[in-house]
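Q: I have two molecules that I believe assemble together. Could you output structure tokens for the complex as a whole instead of separate predictions?
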Amino acid sequence: MDLQTASMLSAGSLILIGMVAIFFVDDIIKKIMGATFITDGVNLFLIALGYREGGVVPILPEKAGNLLCSYPKISTSCIESFAEHASYPLPYALVLTNIVIGAATTAVLLGLVIMLYKKHRTLSTSKLLGVRK
Amino acid sequence: MIEYILMLGAVSTAILALIPKDLMKAVIIGTGIEGLALAFLFQKLLAPDVALTQAILCSTIIPGLFAITVYKTQREEG
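A: Yes, here they are, computed for all two components at once.
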């Protein structure tokens, strides 16, 4: 199968693994790792949407393979062939913001875990909630 | 060819990170190696700026924060 379909399938399986980790695992640090997996799966899915077969990176250089565009004078046919071959640059802006948001959320959650451990001296959620197993 | 190996490696390290009882091993495998595999994969999908951000944040800083948390709480599970 081609690269785009395989990336979307692996992004879906990463989201599933993250959700299983949040629901069924006992330790609280592994639950936070599951939240990181869900963020990574969503970012991979968004990047795989903007892929184009046999394309180039959307940066306009002076000479890029077959697209010869010398920089001060750019003819219109050079711009058109670049626009036909470059990958779609809109999802990158969304994914850049999302990565930083995910990292900041993880940092806040880990701070809360340290405060919880100082008070209760345990890391397993069934003992923290008082559920008898 | 190498893209499919990277995808398989990312998913398999995500599954293998939930198994060990030693928390330091689980955290370094689960976030460090998987973040690095995803950074290579983002470059193969024609997105170099996202690959740089993912390699810095989710392969170096986030495993560091997780390791500090494991050091300050407890090393074994339970």
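A: One point stands out. Residues 42 and 50 of chain B are 7 Å apart (CA to CA).
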